[in-house]
Amino acid sequence: MGAGKVISRFALSSTGFLVGCVAVVWLIVSSLDRYAVPYTYTALDMATTMAERISFVAALPPPPDTQRVIMLGDSTVIQAAGGRALPEQLHEELLRLRPQAVEVQHLADFGISAFEYYAFAEKLTRTHPGVVVLAFNPRAFFDGWRSQWSRKEAYGWIEATRLPEVISKPLHWFGMTLDQLLFYKLAVATGCNRLWRMMRAEQVRTGDGLERFRKWAQTQAPQWLGGRGTALPIPAAGFTDNTNTRLNKEALTERYIDPLRHISADHPVFELFGSFLRILRADGIPVVAYIVPVDVEHMRRMGVEDLHLLERAGSLACTIVRDHGSACLDLHDALPDAAFSDAFGHYHAGPDMNGIGLIARRLAPEVSRALDQRVEALAGHP
Fold first, then answer.
1. What b-and-e string marks burial along 27-36, b requiring 16 or more CB atoms within 10 Å of the CB?
2. What's the pLDDT score for residue 92?
3. What whole-number distance in Å separates Cα of residue 322 and Cα of residue 317?
4. C-alpha–C-alpha distance, residues 242 and 248, integer Å
5. What CA–CA distance (Å, rounded) separates 299 from 291?
6. Of 34, 85, 194, 309, which alpha carbon lies 20 to 30 A from 357's?
7. Contact 194, 44 (CB under 8 A)
8. Structure confidence at residue 295 (pLDDT)
9. Is the dihedral of CA 228, 232, 235, 237 positive or negative?
10. What is the pLDDT of residue 7?
């Protein structure tokens, strides 16, 4: 057979394969609405929504003679079991401490960390903060957190002038490549982020549709599909019992201890954390950072070893904060086991046990002092 015929057959078979793939994808996508496959909140949705929220807060300065506190952090800031979340309770504590009017706005989201806030840094400085309260969660070092929660798309909203600096950062640790960074920035800069968001939503719906189909097919032919993994696997957590409210020793060690064994002050998480603080400091914005409480009491009960690594991680983070002229509270072991509402580090806020209230009372004096310092600094530099 001549080389020309081989190439021709290969081209035809490749073309047929591609056409087949396109046809299958078209059939799946066209069936999404028919079978009511819902839209899923994607990482790009989060990035877009965060950019919009920041712009909204920036466009509304606080009322005259009112100081604004901006709270940043993950779901531990905004999730509350049986009561009010941390921003509301911190506001209440500040009103008790201060005669001046104060408001608390949060720009927190699920799984967000310094990785995303570094991308929005300049925009956050325009939200008129008297003080920024910043939660630092030790779980940010966990691979599962990074793979599930990192929103690389947030870098589409960085200031163009920051690109040389951003490119020099260890973004590879978070799974982002240079071509992704440039594509994200180009998509937003050209106004194509709406189209990008729509395409991403359909992509995720397609994955969800495939998973539904897989489950249906497994019920029809378990002898062929039984025992195979899911198309969109979710890591199983190890619980202590059927209530799923506490993790076992292995899961606790995997999530909280193992990721901290070899960290140092130059770890990528710390580097972006420090870079974000540097931008806030350059704008004269004081920060009160705190290490997010974790269930150390339960870890001890489960026999988890090397708990000193949590204290070391908190010490490293607080050293970075203080080196940037701000305050830091290490609250990693500040709450009893009874204050935690679930296995993933969220807190009760009810009348019987208000773990969030305990955090608010620890934060409020530091935040109040930082607000006073901000007023004094502004008075000295009209």
1. ebeeebeeee
2. 96
3. 9
4. 12
5. 17
6. 309
7. no
8. 97
9. negative
10. 46
- Identify whether the C-beta of residue 326 lies closer than 8 Å to the C-beta of residue 282: no
Question: What is the distance between the alpha carbons of residues 144 and 238, in angstroms, rounded to a whole number?
Answer: 14
| pLDDT, position 198 | 74
Q: Assess contact for 289 and 329: CB atoms under 8 A.
A: yes
pTM score of the predicted model: 0.82
Both tokens of residue 153?
């798309």
Rounded distance between C-alpha atoms, residue 8 and residue 1, angstroms: 11
Task: Report the DSSP beta bridge partners of residue 347.
Answer: 340
Backbone angle region of 25, left / alpha / beta, with phi > 0 → left and psi within -120 to 50 → alpha: alpha
Strands 131-136 and 287-291: parallel
What would the 3-class secondary structure string for 267-331 be? CHHHHHHHHHHHHHHHCCCCEEEEECCCCHHHHHHCCCCCCHHHHHHHHHHHHHHHHCCCEEEEC
CB atoms within 10 A of CB 148: 13
- Per-residue pLDDT tens for 48-66? 889 999 999 999 999 999 9
